[in-house]
Fold this sequence. Notes:
The complex is a heterodimer of chains A (238) and B (291).
Chain A: E1 7-12, E2 20-26, E3 29-35, E4 41-45, E5 59-61, E6 64-66, E7 73-74, E8 80-82, E9 99-100, E10 102-105, E11 108-112, E12 130-138, H1 142-152, E13 154-158, E14 163-168, E15 171-181, E16 184-192, H2 200-219
Antiparallel strand pairs in A: 1-11, 2-3, 3-4, 4-9, 5-6, 6-7, 7-8, 10-11, 12-16, 13-14, 14-15, 15-16
Chain B: H1 7-10, E1 14-18, E2 27-31, E3 34-40, E4 46-51, E5 57-61, E6 63-66, E7 69-72, E8 93-96, E9 100-102, H2 106-114, H3 119-122, E10 139-143, E11 148-158, E12 168-178, E13 181-187, E14 195-206, E15 209-218, H4 225-243, H5 265-277
Antiparallel strand pairs in B: 1-7, 2-3, 3-4, 4-5, 6-7, 8-15, 9-15, 10-11, 11-12, 12-13, 13-14, 14-15
The structure holds FE2/S2 (inorganic) cluster and fe (ii) ion (FE2).
FE2/S2 (inorganic) cluster is lined by residues 48, 50-51, 53, 67, 69-70, 72 of chain A.
Amino acid sequence: MSFSGGWYPVALSNQLEPATSAGTRLFDREICIWRDSDGGVHAWEDRCPHRGMRLSFGFVRGDRIACLYHGWQYDMQGRCRFIPAHPQLDVPSTIRVATYPCIDRLGMVWMCSDLKMEMPLDLPIDRRDIAPVRSLYVDCAPIATMQALSARSECTVLAGGALISIHAGPQNMIAGFQPFGKGKTALHIVFLGSPEQYPGNARRSAAVWAEELRHDLEREPVPDTAPAGSYEAAPWRS
Amino acid sequence: MTKTTDIVALDEWYAIAVMADVGGNPIRTRLLGQDIIYGRGPNDRVSVHEVDASGRPGAALPTRERYNCLWTSLGAPRHEIFRLAEAEEKDRRVVVCGWIKMRTSGLRLVENFLDMAHFPYIHPNILGAEPHTEVPQYASEIRRDVDEVWATNCQFYQPQIVANGPGGMVQLTYRVPSPFVVMLYRVCPSSPDRLDVIMMFIQPIEEDLCRALPVMYLIDDRSSQIDLLNFEQVIFLQDRIIVENQRPLLLPLEPRSETPTRADLSSVVFRRWLKEKGLRFGTAEGGRDLV
Ligand code: FES
Ligand SMILES: [Fe+2]
């Protein structure tokens, strides 16, 4: 299986509130994620078909997202429904944003990195009680981040690299692994269990652990062993 | 980056400095990827030179002083700098704003300037206001005799035509005399038989980096200078958020890469004109592989 085709977490669920949008990246591709007012999550190409404005700058109203530049409105399927410059116009159904499969699972927003792939998200853990810790964005290549992580903690790689179960001291954490781009990785860290099971000090020490990890990764950048621009060579994928 | 090889871009005139800022101390800047240096010599003569890789000034470039700016070209311009009749009227008020640097192609900026449909969204309660979002039909054409792009009969609802006044339709005419210069004529609220002129001169620094200078020739004798400057500053900072976040940053000329509607007619004509000219600098097709 190639590294570029699959499901990856791109945010902690609690960080993407209803009726908001945000920009992120997966393999350096710019992605707009947004949550409609009913709580549904969406991951789209971050580019409005009209004049290329990043849709993550747009605003969500109910079940639509409107582009910031000229207010074109898109429904949940990515189809343009309203063009304010021509209020009477019956918008042609061909005007669409490229949409990725997207789902809320394990306290994270997941997207499939391939527009056309219809592969169900199959996670080895499936729980609803999740205590989010924090997202960590490190200026370190995905492969190097993975290597450093396994070197300093006891890790089990799951879901083809998209999830890591981490045992750091007394803590058991799950980190969603987002290959953000060539020199950047995001980790979305949660505890399995309800937030009540994890008192303030457990979360605080996990946050400290994450901060130390970032500090280490960014202080001594480990060179990415993969050829420039390629994510195919990820060791945990082969 | 290094100097572009795009002859069409090289042969144009570009405003590179406000005359008031041209003094005895040479100032270095960059045009079309090429470092240049300008200043006033001992005999008060203004000159512009390319700077070579070792930092030494090379051959002198052609210069002009026009519209309160210093202009130059890296090539052999085939025509003079465009003429603006209004600039010769003695009672005009000239407002030279400050340069604003933007991480985008200068051509994206021209299109943004030509665009009315964004007024209610990007300049709410200044240049537009919801629900007045409709762009009435207007005309746009390449004027072959002068080789310029014009958009005429443009109208748009503005919430305040004069400060603190009522809203209404403004009448606008747009003109693109060269690929990196764009201007608009606006029916002057205080004397409806005359037109205010707002120009934007763009200095393309690199394919995806430019700076822009708004210069206005107004009839307005009421607003204070500082109010006019602040007004332009606000508008351009709002536009910057847009143009720096369009993808790609370089302007696509291929008609199918974006989705124009009737309101984008001037953009369609502008792109067609650039394509006919064979301009590549700052375009998605001809530019270097960037974002
Ligand atoms: S670029 Fe999105 S509405 Fe125009
Ligand atoms: Fe604008």
